[in-house]
């Protein structure tokens, strides 16, 4: 993390630090994790700070919320370069690079209005399969519609 | 006849099957041809549910005929308005009920992915008889069977697909099924009805040799098979767009004169105006024969899915 951002945000006691998010994607990361800010726990967000690896990057710190590795790997959809630090008692207990999940269930909305998963009254969750990491491509498991990064951003309500 | 082979599985997409599966199906269908107008009493203890939420003539009646010829029984409905869906019942509940009554369910629905979802809900095998503009696997099996019956092989043929490549589910399933064979594909359509990104990416990923043209006269002399589909009026998001494009292509005597002597013309039917009636009497026309194969092909499919003595 750059010295400048450390001036802005203090260390967290228990939680997770998501670093090396491509600049401008921090809000998408929070949306993917289902964090709106209304849940009550402390969230710090730094955008467009200097990074040796990426030029500029975003950082997100979340205090007081347990996140599983599976939940965190969803971040890879919009931030494939992200690294995650799990923190307990101010110490980093584990650190990993996110990896793209092969299946994303129940999180994204299919853009095809005629897809069965868009029917309100059917007990069906959306399900997407990863077909390409670069460029990002997911395919709806039910209707076969291809979704690219811009579709995913739209699905998360950030475009 | 193929011994006691039983698939006992859903039929949602042709991609769930292998080339070997098709060979088994074709050989079974060939042996069923002689029973297509008589009876082979092997599914006497079975009930087939036909859940047609969308209109159908050939697919529904050929499934029904096939089941009756195999000695089985049929329940079902045609059009959601005659069912509790009209009262607000959802698809999942309707399928659960049919699952309790029948040994297999044939479903046609306007929503894409409906058959796959039904298969997840039902324990009995589910056969997709068309979902939205996505899949129509049993039609593609029938199309391939007709080509195989006509030419004895599929590998090496040059196949033109003319018409609505964007919304016709039969095109999607046919191209997927043909990906198991070494064929040359010529896609022919008005610009507005070019195949969707999904189909183009599929063809590229499978290394299918294909080209596209908007004029059938450019490729007619190269074709062994000309497969024609109507413009799918009911799937156009904008009716004005349909009005602009209707009648954009027509197969007539002049076109087929430029074809090879052994060219065959197929069509999944219904036909609107894309094949001139004068073509019906030519030796090239095979679409009614193709529709006729629907019964033995679906007899074979039902037998493989439902079992039944050898």
UniProtKB/TrEMBL annotation, chain A:
Residues bound to Zn(2+) are: 110, 115, 140, 143
- MF terms per GO, please? metal ion binding
Q: Which GO terms describe its biological process?
A: 'de novo' pyrimidine nucleobase biosynthetic process; pyrimidine nucleotide biosynthetic process
Task: Kindly state what the record says about how the cofactor is bound.
Answer: Binds 1 zinc ion per subunit.
Required cofactor names: Zn(2+)
Is this entry keyworded S-adenosyl-L-methionine? no
* Subunit note: Contains catalytic and regulatory chains.
Role of this protein: Involved in allosteric regulation of aspartate carbamoyltransferase.
Question: PANTHER family under this entry?
Answer: ASPARTATE CARBAMOYLTRANSFERASE REGULATORY CHAIN (PTHR35805:SF1)
- Family statement: Belongs to the PyrI family.
Q: What is this protein called?
A: Aspartate carbamoyltransferase regulatory chain
UniProtKB/TrEMBL annotation, chain B:
Q: Where is the Aspartate/ornithine carbamoyltransferase carbamoyl-P binding domain?
A: 9-148
- Per the UniProt entry, what are the Gene Ontology biological process annotations, in alphabetical order? 'de novo' pyrimidine nucleobase biosynthetic process; 'de novo' UMP biosynthetic process; amino acid metabolic process
User: Is Acyltransferase there in the keyword field?
Assistant: no
Pfam families with a match to the protein in the record: OTCace (PF00185), OTCace_N (PF02729)
Q: Which UniProt keywords apply?
A: Pyrimidine biosynthesis, Transferase
Briefly, what is this protein's role?
Catalyzes the condensation of carbamoyl phosphate and aspartate to form carbamoyl aspartate and inorganic phosphate, the committed step in the de novo pyrimidine nucleotide biosynthesis pathway.
Name used for this protein in its record: Aspartate carbamoyltransferase
From the broadest rank down, the organism's phylogenetic lineage runs: Archaea, Thermoproteota, Thermoprotei, Thermoproteales, Thermoproteaceae
